[in-house]
């Protein structure tokens, strides 16, 4: 399987959880920096794994790097069982175009291009999974519910939220469009967990003390690829259930 944006936060934790779970898994850690991917892989290997790990360079905003990653996976494995579109960027830049450009390029166009490029390899698998790591912040139902804690955005938070709502639509369209194949599509909310998404300071990484352990996000994604959530295929899942779109 291939995880995009695997060198930190949710991606790192998920690669670790999956590689430690079983010898049947070979996790390809895709990162825009091969150095970061290799150092993340070494850290996971040092903790002890049952499955295998490898790395590939992939920047979701660089089509050439996507094509090269697809060619490498094709040459080495000839198929892909699981694609996890996890990479994302957040921006609350005061300039509206700047924040929208970054969020849309990375969180919407990138995953759409990555999915289209890897799909032929996924469709060669007997039980393929296409997983999009989204956010409850992308739920239109929650965003329009005045009783929801995510009803109001932080200042300039609308670009990230709009990107995740768009990502959800991409996943839904893939799920419907490929319903006659074996492909199972999931949108996964990883929960509010420690990562670099909100910034690199300890306050930002820990979500001002409120963020949980990304290992839990990894365990949710593991449960999806182990088939435990198959009844929820085509939906927006989180650890404990399903979110409304
Ligand atoms: N943490 C949370 O509380 C939370 C909540 C809801 C949803 N999520 C979602 O969880 C996913 C993972 O985020 P995270 O929280 O783990 O944040 P993170 O630590 O910042 O991880 C994001 C990853 O995406 C990579 N990335 C960014 N731009 C990229 C590009 N152009 N090409 C390839 N990789 C790129 C980053 O690589 P670099 O290291 O090179 O920047 C990093 O590995 C995201 O989809 C995010 O929206 C997180």
Could you characterize the architecture of this molecule?
By secondary structure, this protein is α/β, with parallel strands linked by helices. The protein is 44% helix and 14% strand. It has a single domain, classed as Rossmann fold (3-Layer(aba) Sandwich), CATH 3.40.50. It has an 8-stranded mixed sheet with strand order 3-2-1-4-5-6-7-8, with helices on both faces. The longest helix is centred in the middle third of the chain and has 27 residues, at 96-122. NADP nicotinamide-adenine-dinucleotide phosphate binds next to helix 1 and helix 4.
Task: Indicate the topology.
Layout: E1 2-4, H1 9-21, E2 26-31, H2 34-47, E3 52-57, H3 63-77, E4 82-85, H4 96-122, E5 129-133, H5 140-143, H6 158-177, E6 184-188, H7 202-205, H8 214-225, E7 236-238, E8 241-243
The structure holds NADP nicotinamide-adenine-dinucleotide phosphate (NAP).
- Helicity level, as a percent range? 40-55%
Radius of gyration: 17 Å
H/E element string?
Answer: EHEHEHEHEHHEHHEE
Number of strands: 8
Report the end-to-end length measured between terminal Cα atoms.
Answer: 26 Å
Sheet of most strands: 8 strands, mixed
**What's the total helix number?**
8
Name of the CATH superfamily: NAD(P)-binding Rossmann-like Domain
**CATH fold description:** Rossmann fold
CATH-derived architecture: 3-Layer(aba) Sandwich
Bound molecules: NADP nicotinamide-adenine-dinucleotide phosphate
